[in-house]
Amino acid sequence: MSNENISIxxxxxxxxxxxxxNLERQGPGSPEVTLKALSFIEPLTDTARxxxxxxxxxxxxxxxxQHCPGQITGIDLFPLFIDLFNRNAAKHNLxxxxxxxxGDMASLPFKExxxxxxxxxxxxxxxxxxxxxxEWRKLLKRGGYIxxxxxxxxxxxxxxxxxxxxxxAYPEIDTVSHKVAQMEKAGYVPVATFILPENCxxxxxxxxxxxxxxxxxxxxxxxxxxxxxxxxxxREKSLxxxxxxxxxxxxxxxxxx
Length: 257
Ligand code: SAM
Description:
The protein is of the alpha/beta class. It is 45% helix and 22% strand. The longest helix is centred in the last third of the chain and has 20 residues, at 224-243.
């Protein structure tokens, strides 16, 4: 890869990051859903070690931290998100218990059996659901929990347009029963699964993007990458509106045995 390509690539990533830093969340979810997932986990103590993997700017991490004790490390690939994450922690006066670090979910900086809880909302797809479950399990103590939200099919069949879209975007999308079976196979007791309500997509994810898109297009007028990014986000939203009965995000909560 030439230097020119590297700089174009970096520029695209910077632009994508800039777009998403304007949003409180970088994926579908809500504080209510974070708390519902937490309700399935046995109470933690002040010494608990928690990781939020693919934390983004920390929307869900701050909710989590306000409702459970222990030390939380947020990890994300993008330094820009981590800067905002740490500012967010300070704003909520959580900086002593909540720290963001830049890192890759494929090589996490934790020791074996160090963690009591692994949290990951809308992020495990970056490593793949099965691979993530298997690799991250080593880092959990026996009896520790994993709570992850993941794109899932609600039906065994679906229209070709949405099937093809997901096969291109994330071929590991699967039905809830298959994901639960993968969780069991990876050595977790499936404690709970639940579908994220529509408002996690509409009110908490797509609605805040409307104003951000207008502002972003003005700031980057004539920039084809920015225009393409906004076009893709709008297409994703229209596909969601059309096909939401066939897919969505599901929270999977498991306990390491
Ligand atoms: N958990 C946040 C939320 O629900 O708002 C963010 C979800 S966003 C859809 C996915 C996140 O995964 C992004 O913040 C992205 O930067 C991060 N990510 C992508 N690849 C990663 C990797 N290899 N290691 C760590 N984080 C990664």
